[in-house]
Design a protein that fits this description.
Layout: E1 8-10, E2 15-17, H1 18-23, H2 28-47, H3 51-71, H4 76-96, H5 99-119
Length: 145
């Protein structure tokens, strides 16, 4: 079915068709580049005992992963499995404030993420947790005492 009209939006600089706007949407490379830092911050916030901050970054990471599946439907089934099977134990450990369970679940989640990179022909992408906490955040700010 062909539309008999074209919607146009303005970005303040020029008018864009919806097709042009759609072309500007990020691909998996840009979306996943936002997932890594969120995972990294989740881990070190939990290690610092700042469970609220860890949960904040974890929820943000999951939101980004869901956007990946929405943006690229071919990943939908595997992403749903990853979120349910591999991310949910991390969420549970965060909710329970159980550091040993969190560390184990997080390590498993990272292993599974790298597994899925291979499933989709990108085995050369292997995410590793940085060895030091982020130096651009005060991980103790607002930490539960």
């Amino acid at each position: 079915m062909t539309a008999d009209h074209t919607h146009v939006v303005s970005n303040g600089k020029r008018e864009l068709t919806l097709d042009e706007l759609a072309l500007m949407q990020p691909g998996m490379d840009r979306l996943m580049a936002e997932v890594g830092p969120r995972a990294y911050r989740t881990y070190y916030a939990a290690k610092a005992g700042n469970w609220r901050l860890a949960d904040y970054f974890f929820r943000s990471m999951v939101k980004q992963l869901r956007l990946c599946a929405t943006s690229r439907p071919k990943y939908d089934t595997d992403m749903a499995a990853f979120l349910g099977d591999d991310c949910e134990p991390v969420r549970s450990a965060l909710r329970d404030r159980d550091l040993p369970a969190f560390e184990s679940a997080f390590e498993h989640m990272v292993e599974r993420a790298n597994h899925y990179h291979g499933v989709f022909g990108k085995a050369y992408i292997v995410w590793v947790l940085p060895s030091l906490p982020p130096d651009d955040l005060d991980l103790s700010a607002g930490a539960d005492t």
